[in-house]
Amino acid sequence: MELKALTFKLVFFLIFSFTNCVQTDSKTQEIKGMFVFGSSLVDNGNNNFLKNSSAKADYSPYGIDFPLGPSGRFSNGRNAIDVLGELLSLPCYIPPFADPKTRGRRIVNGVNYASGGSGILDETGELAGEVVSLSQQIRNFKNRTVPDFEAHIRGRCKGRCSNDYLSDYLFVVGTGGNDYLLNYFAPAKKQKPSLSQFTELLVSKLTRQLKKLYRHGARKFVLFSIQPIGCIPVARENLQISNGSCIEALNEAALLFNNLLKSKALSLKHKMPGSNLIFVNSYNIIRSIIDNPHAHGFSDASRGCCELSADKGEGILCKRGGTTCSNRTSHVFFDGLHPTDAVNLRIAQKAYSSSLLEEAYPTNVKKLVYM
């Protein structure tokens, strides 16, 4: 057999093994998996299974640089969850909850519940059609996954399991941006509270959801901040910004949310004994790239890499079968909103090992693992 054919078969085997494994019994692995909640920035394909959702990335050119092609990830390649799983030495990508196969042995390394277009508030996803709100995501975890998980775990240890088995898992939450972009700042929103009141509402509801996860067994939390939403291509395009500037009014809303979430969520530790929580400031990580792209190895920090659709998503999503830029590793954004694989790699690496408090606070994921 030719060397080229052998190489292809080996690569295919490695990819298939990583993406389709169902469990691990590694004695040296400190974190066994992740349970992921949020919106499109961390969605691993749940919206693929929602018939009436317009927020889908299950078509080309999404996944152009991903081993399995279009998978429902809103990126040309991996999202930050995928990279974080690799850094944690997890044996496979976290499967989406909505996939009927995500049951039994397949959930041992965690489940992804995130839904593109969703938000902290239930009504936020209405513009995207059918989505799964954060509240429903947590109910899915409680009502479907936890019983399934307990049954499988207790079957493996023959009834001699401790009740703190979920302490070996990370609970990752990345949400909030859509509550501003698709709700508070939406043109159709005529009557609304002040920005500070709305932000207080969001953070209060999110912290209540974190408490629910704690009551269901969560102990290690990773919270991702809202990204600089005033710098995304769709925001600049809609307001016809031609000088490369970001929409600072949107960024100020994101900063208000991030600062309030950081202070309130971290204070939850005293109300949730035995828990640890870190705050990943993806806003700072992305903004530093946007403000000085060439210093970080990027050349375009304002435009999407793919041809955008004018039919759905209002300039947010890629056109089905549309063209893409050839230098995707040098672009910050892949479509009108979502980062490229290269930026997701940077976010996950910073979350995992950064020693800078303005990037990961009060510590990083690598250290959280051992807490």
TrEMBL record:
InterPro entries membership: GDSL, GDSL_esterase/lipase, SGNH_hydro_sf, SGNH_plant_lipase-like
A Pfam family it matches: Lipase_GDSL
Annotated compartments: Secreted
Gene3D superfamilies: SGNH hydrolase (3.40.50.1110)
One Gene Ontology term of the molecular function aspect: hydrolase activity, acting on ester bonds
Stretch forming the signal peptide: 1-21
Record keywords: Hydrolase, Lipid degradation, Lipid metabolism, Secreted, Signal
Main localisation: secreted
GO biological process, one term: lipid catabolic process
UniProt cross-references to CDD domains, sorted A to Z: SGNH_plant_lipase_like
GO cellular component terms listed in the entry, alphabetical order: extracellular region
PANTHER family noted in UniProt: GDSL-LIKE LIPASE/ACYLHYDROLASE-RELATED, OS06G0560700 PROTEIN
Family membership: Belongs to the 'GDSL' lipolytic enzyme family.
Name under which the protein is recorded: GDSL esterase/lipase
Organism whose genome encodes this protein: Dendrobium nobile (Orchid)
